[in-house]
């Protein structure tokens, strides 16, 4: 394998324009994994940074001939190990394919290459009076291609949906190097299977997306911000359930617990943790009177759930700072030690119950769990933090991780709301969907990746043979 | 085949509860096709009306053993032949599985059986202060199961999306009779491939949907109505493009031409055709002042495009009557003779151009084409009407049908916006997606339907062998 793979790197160097193949071992190493601290990764045989679809096609064709795995990556901000290299693979980084091809104001769509950074697209759309909603907390760094691969969510998704809701169509390199167009440019369309939708969230296991057509909305409406502090996680969770029960759809409803508030304070000295234990940030954006009513309703929900302090923020700069702090929670916590990130999603009314179970698990396993959450849609991110040297704590954290996954499933939830399965949630996926549906996954993977080269081993393990009597295989 | 199929009917009669298998030949014949007047259909070996998932599983298992095709149907209001029987098949009608299992006000979702009529679901949701948006013109008769099979659209989809946007999860019978749950109940989720989304719009070719979990919205906001008459189709099309360019998202924007207006008048004596040649009906639903501004903007677009008469309707009953007339257009035109229904969708700004091309084709081929359209999202329904005895006109209409499909593709559009491919758009689909993407369809079909029993021959032809060098097969 090593010899053949070295041969491939040389072959790619020969057939691609100069500068596409990375040679520096340190640079190559930096492309070997994403930000899922605890997921295993291997050593790539080659790292390539293509600039055109034709180059991607060439790479895929050569890898298909040799049966060499391909691992695609955007900015590498993934949190499940989905972009982690396997030994001897070719890593394709899309960072140099970062053109915004077009923005069409009248049709309300944009065509972009996969390496465009999420915030850059949003900024460019804003110049045309348009809005690309999906806003993962990684938006300043993560790319649209990576967002498509994981069907990324974000803060405004509670009202405006996730990446899949905005992907109309795409160009992709599939199979053994075929370039195809999937989906459409029109507002509606039901011509055949929803292959574009299938590619979204498939984590690079079915092909490589080389261009994306996204639907846009009109310029974002002005938002009102509601702030509440609570004594306990569960009380904050009850405020979230109260908002759902009140029938209000906030444009964001974020939870940040005391561990995260302190981590941000320690880093940026914002004084957030002085206000109370758990912070809920609500936003709403209906126009005019309707928006006033929404904001008042959310405030009443905070109060009725026992907020220790709550108010409607009247200072837009203060509100922006609070949401900036929310986005900093993850990197702030990362400064404390290796972080194992959960991404469970439960029915909204069960947010308090799920938070209670997470707290119980933290106590039981004696580990430090910080919580941030897109609480409004039930998407919780318990962050398990250990000190680098404490191997025992690390093992307990891994057990707690799986237990939280099981509790989410038990509550009718899912193991991953927006980060994807990657490597970290493979057991959870199996648990959640069961053997028949997993067999359907394998059958689709086999059907659309006959050479078996696209990110093998992510989402589910490969290589198992079908059991006797099994309908879907392999 | 005939003997074996007779055997199957007897077997089903034996293993299913009494009254499930239909025996009356006239009743059986009525289940042999949908409303796609010109699509071919065969003679089913058995027609079954199951009441429970366990019965559906039993039917699928027996058909899989014998390799007998299964054609599922809801109310049979399809317009592409997707529910047409093939010789010797088992037709499964879901009309008796019509329970609304639950409506959850807090989580904003409903769980329904596939035979629930679209309007019945909307009515039940309204009682809980909730709204199920997808509203095909067939809503008084068509079922959610059929809507899911075709990814049905409708009037409000221009603002609120289509069926797929509301399907969170489902129970389905797949493969050789396995019962599975696909999708989720939570607001977000990226655990594995989007198999629920793949099932939506797959026209019964990948399995049978036996229960559906749909997302709901809060009670529908009050709408404002804007009415405009235009001299020509193209002028009305220009008003549609103007609305898009103005950045207004109407909650409906429907076009009805003079042929349809007259057909409705002849039937219901509403005097609609006295107002002018082509009627545009716009609606918008932003709350308060924002809604006033939207309505004014739409009215200005109508005026600037040369409306011969236009106004904001202030009488809600009159507005309701106008939209009721829109829904009657199709059945009214059907009274005039066999109708071949188009369903092309083009970019919004190209609606005037597409309408011009349709008019040119009508003249060139000397056929009667009436037009209704969900114009706001570029989804046009040219209706080709011929007299029952005129075989030559029928042939010309079929040629015109294919030509319109080609023109839509040439304008960057799709052959079907919301009716599905069925039998009538198979050539169009092939033209639109090309051989590689069609091969991906076949590969998925083979992977998820290993027994080859689910609605074979719909969407694409089956039985072709892969060409040499073809990546995707069979």
Could you give the topology of this structure?
The structure is a homodimer of 474-residue chains.
Chain A: H1 2-15, E1 21-22, H2 25-30, E2 46-48, H3 53-66, E3 70-73, E4 90-93, E5 100-104, E6 109-112, H4 118-126, E7 130-131, H5 144-150, H6 157-160, E8 167-174, E9 178-183, H7 195-199, E10 208-215, E11 217-218, E12 224-230, H8 233-245, E13 252-256, H9 258-268, E14 278-284, H10 288-304, E15 309-313, H11 316-334, E16 339-341, H12 351-364, E17 368-374, E18 379-385, H13 391-410, H14 426-448
Parallel strand pairs in A: 2-4, 3-4
Antiparallel strand pairs in A: 1-2, 5-6, 6-10, 7-11, 8-9, 8-10, 12-14, 12-15, 13-14, 13-17, 16-18, 17-18
Helix pairs in contact in A: 1-3, 8-10, 8-12, 9-11, 12-13, 13-14
Description:
The structure is a homodimer of 474-residue chains. With 474 residues, chain A is α+β, with helices and mostly antiparallel strands. Chain A folds into four domains: 2-93, Uridine Diphospho-n-acetylenolpyruvylglucosamine Reductase, domain 2 (2-Layer Sandwich), CATH 3.30.43; 100-218, 2-Layer Sandwich (Uridine Diphospho-n-acetylenolpyruvylglucosamine Reductase, domain 3); 224-410, FAD-linked oxidases, C-terminal domain (Vanillyl-alcohol Oxidase, Chain A, domain 3); 427-474, no CATH class. Chain A has 14 helices and 18 strands. The first copy, chain A, has helices at residues 2-15, 25-30, 53-66, 118-126, 144-150, 157-160, 195-199, 233-245, 258-268, 288-304, 316-334, 351-364, 391-410, 426-448; strands spanning 21-22, 46-48, 70-73, 90-93, 100-104, 109-112, 130-131, 167-174, 178-183, 208-215, 217-218, 224-230, 252-256, 278-284, 309-313, 339-341, 368-374, 379-385. In chain A, the strands form four sheets. In chain A, strands 15-12-14-13-17-18-16 form a seven-stranded antiparallel sheet, with helices on both faces. Chain A has a five-stranded antiparallel sheet with strand order 5-6-10-8-9. In chain A, strand 5 (100-104) and strand 6 (109-112) form a beta hairpin. In chain A, helix 8 (233-245) packs antiparallel against helix 12. Chain A is globular, with a radius of gyration of 22 Å. The mean pLDDT of chain A is 95. At the A-B interface, strand 9, helix 7, helix 8, helix 10 and helix 14 of A face strand 9, helix 7, helix 8, helix 10 and helix 14 of B.
């Amino acid at each position: 394998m090593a010899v053949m793979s070295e041969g491939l790197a040389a072959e790619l160097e020969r057939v691609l324009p100069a500068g596409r193949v990375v040679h520096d071992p340190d640079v190559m190493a930096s492309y070997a994994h994403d930000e899922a601290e605890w997921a295993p990764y291997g050593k790539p045989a080659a790292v390539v940074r293509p600039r055109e679809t034709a180059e991607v096609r060439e790479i895929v064709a050569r890898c298909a001939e040799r049966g060499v795995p391909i691992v695609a990556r955007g900015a590498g901000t993934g949190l499940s190990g989905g972009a982690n290299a396997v030994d001897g693979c070719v890593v394709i980084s899309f960072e140099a394919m970062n053109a915004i091809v077009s923005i069409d104001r009248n049709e309300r769509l944009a065509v972009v290459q996969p390496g465009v950074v999420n915030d850059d697209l949003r900024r460019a759309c804003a110049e045309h009076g348009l809005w690309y909603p999906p806003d993962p907390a990684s938006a300043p760094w993560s790319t649209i291609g990576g967002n498509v691969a994981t069907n990324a969510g974000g803060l405004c998704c509670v009202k405006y949906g996730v990446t899949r809701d905005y992907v109309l169509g795409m160009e992709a390199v599939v199979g053994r190097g075929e370039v195809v167009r999937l989906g459409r440019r029109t507002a509606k369309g039901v011509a055949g299977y929803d292959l574009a939708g299938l590619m979204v969230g498939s984590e690079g296991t079915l092909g490589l997306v080389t261009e994306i057509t996204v639907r846009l909305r009109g310029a974002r409406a002005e938002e009102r911000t509601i702030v509440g502090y609570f004594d306990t996680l569960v009380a904050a969770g009850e405020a979230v359930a109260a908002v759902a029960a009140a029938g209000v759809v906030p444009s964001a409803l974020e939870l940040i617990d005391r561990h995260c508030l302190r981590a941000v304070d320690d880093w940026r000295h914002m004084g957030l943790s002085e206000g109370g234990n758990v912070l809920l940030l609500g936003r709403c954006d209906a126009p005019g009177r309707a928006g006033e009513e929404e904001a008042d309703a959310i405030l009443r929900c905070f109060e009725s759930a026992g907020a220790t302090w709550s108010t409607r923020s009247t200072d837009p700069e203060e509100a922006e700072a609070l949401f900036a702090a929310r986005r900093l929670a993850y990197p702030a916590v990362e400064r404390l030690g290796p972080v194992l990130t959960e991404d469970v999603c439960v029915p909204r009314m069960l947010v308090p119950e799920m938070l209670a179970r997470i707290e119980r698990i933290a106590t039981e396993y004696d580990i430090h769990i910080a919580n941030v959450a897109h609480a409004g849609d039930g998407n919780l991110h318990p962050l398990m933090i250990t000190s680098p040297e404490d191997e025992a704590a690390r093992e307990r954290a891994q057990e707690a991780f799986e237990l939280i996954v099981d509790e989410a499933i038990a509550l009718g939830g899912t193991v991953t709301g927006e980060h994807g399965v990657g490597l970290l949630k493979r057991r959870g996926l199996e648990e959640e969907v069961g053997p028949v549906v997993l067999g359907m996954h394998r059958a689709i993977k086999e059907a659309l990746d006959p050479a078996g080269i696209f990110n093998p081993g992510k989402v589910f393990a490969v290589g198992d043979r079908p059991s006797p009597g099994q309908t879907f295989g392999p």
